[in-house]
Structure formats: structure tokens, C-alpha cells
Amino acid sequence: MTTEPAQKTEQEQVERATGACAEIRKALANVVVGQHEVIDQMLLALFSGGHCLISGAPGLAKTLLVKSLAQVFHLKFQRIQFTPDLMPADITGTEILMEDAQGGRKLSFVPGPIFANIILADEINRTPPKTQSALLEAMQEHQVTASGHAHRLEEPFFVLATKNPIEMEGTYGLPEAQLDRFMFDIQIDYLSETEEVEVIKQTTSRTASPLKAILTGEDLLAFQQLIRKVPVADEVVQFAVRLTAASRPNRPGAPAFVNDWVNWGAGTRAGQYLVLGAKARALIDGRSHANYDDVRWVSHPVLRHRILLNYKAEAEGKSVGDVIDRLIETVQPK
């Protein structure tokens, strides 16, 4: 008696998620020219509840894109500029001595900028590892601990960290443990000539208007739960596991090119994100289940920062993208 209404409600949620994504893409197109694949990858991560690492040269609208996403989701946004002198307490907050109404003094926790829904960690590789690690607990546990007390972060909570691939002097590479906590590594490339002309025309002729909110944080949390319910066949999960395992060198069944070029492969979390990202892609496309193509589509942003190449690959001019392309060609569904 209660099954049909529940199914109908879920179907309505799927249709709403699909329609909302179409609205968001249209709204963002008025602010950010091009970068359609980048926008789709960021939406997949947000709908899945994952964090993103965004790599790209300066001036490619990384900050604008993140701020615009916060606006369309009606979420609290904070930008943290990571610099060499930034301290962990500058991010998480600290306890200070305050005077109460009775004239007594007590320690009171003052929240830092991380207490927001969407955090833009700008140029995260410009701050030392001690400060970078301040994000680890927040990203994984969605809480901050100060003086032994845990302070929960408001849901939903996302960290979108940008990394400048040039100007490597004075930067600190992110440890693999922290890289693995990012669902996607999204690469933003230069625009085409036509798109760049459109950007310059837009930015030199008018001031962009603030975007209207399309979804609330509650909607986003509901969609995250809905994504978990998207069915996926055991064969597709197995394909994601085999694709991940094939990236690990010197293991049984590892392809020859992986043994030649890869120093370290992807872990189990990569397989989890391949399946979760595939489910999210199926949902926003309005499909009832995830398939092999969904796994392949998210393989680059999921595996890109989890595969470490060796010197031989660099000497031969091979990139991580080349390795992932070969993996997709080599690993086939059973």
C-alpha cells in the first residue's frame, strides 16, 4: 500500500534533480563561458557530497565558478586564501578568553571561515603541510576539534580547493593522504578563441548580476541521499573495481604499461568514487541506473590525482591522462 507513493516520490525527485541541473547549467552559462565538462564534474561532486581539487592556470574563472555555484545553491560561501604564513587556527577558529555578564572570564570558541557550506581553498599548495592538514578532519569528519571539543560543521559541506600548476617555487605539494580525500581532480583548460572573445566582450561591457538561488541546502542533502539509492549492477561495480586495481603496478594482472610507467596506483576509495560518480551522472541525466559509460566518464577526474607516475613515464613524455586512457581501453566489462 505504501510502496507506490514512495516510488512515485523518488521518481519526482529524480525529475526534479534532472530539471534543476538543466537550470543550473543555464544560469552558470550566463556567468561562465564554456567549461561545460568542468561544470558537469563539479555538479556531480556536489550532488555526491564529495570535495574537489581544481587545477588550472590563473585567470580561467576558477574562483568565479565556485562562487557562482554557491549562489545557485543558496549556500554560505567562504573564500580562504592560502599563504605561507597561514596558521591552522586561521582556518578552523580558536578559543579566546572572554568576559561574561557577571564579570567572570571563560574560554569561548570563535569559529573560523571553515564554518560555511562551500569553502574555496584558494591556492592550497601555497601553505605548509601543517596548515593543509587542518582541512583533513573537516573534509573527512565534517567537524573541527578545538581544546578537546568537537564542533560540527553545517551541512552540506564542501571543500573546493584550487591549485596553480605553474609558479611551483615556494609551494608545498599536497600529501597523498589528503589528495585521496578529494573525490575529483578537475582540470580547467584554456578556452577556444570564440569563447575567449565572448568572455572579454561580457566582462568589459557590463557588470554581472548576482545569480538567483535555484536549490537550497536541504534540496542538495535530499539529492545526495537519492543518489545512494540509484541502482547499479554488480557487473558495473566489478568493472569499477577492476579498473582501479589495474592501475596498481606489480600486482597480478597489472597491464605491462602500468608496470612500466606507474609508481603508485589508486586505492579502494577510487572505486567507491567511480561508482558514486556514475550514480550521480545517471541521476542528473534522468536515467534509472548507472552503466559502464558512466564509470568511464568519471574515471579521469577520479583517478587523475591517485596515480603516481615514475621517472620512466616522464622521460617518455607520458601523462596520467595517457595512462587512464590506456586503462579504459584495456579493462573491458566481463
What labels describe this entry?
334 residues; alpha/beta; Rossmann fold; Helicase, Ruva Protein, domain 3; 2 domains; 5-stranded parallel beta sheet; two-stranded antiparallel ribbon; 15 helices; 16% strand; globular; disordered N terminus
What would you say this structure looks like, in words?
The protein has helices at residues 3-29, 36-48, 62-72, 88-92, 129-132, 134-141, 176-179, 193-205, 217-228, 234-245, 256-261, 268-284, 292-303, 311-315, 320-330; strands spanning 52-56, 77-81, 93-99, 105-111, 118-122, 143-146, 149-152, 158-163, 184-188, 262-264, 308-309. It is α/β, with parallel strands linked by helices and 334 residues long. It has two domains: 3-220, Rossmann fold, CATH 3.40.50; 231-330, Magnesium chelatase subunit I, C-Terminal domain (Helicase, Ruva Protein, domain 3, Orthogonal Bundle), CATH 1.10.8. The strands form four sheets. It has a five-stranded parallel sheet. Strands 3-4 form a two-stranded antiparallel ribbon. Strand 3 and strand 4 form a beta hairpin. Mean pLDDT is 85; it is low at 1-6.
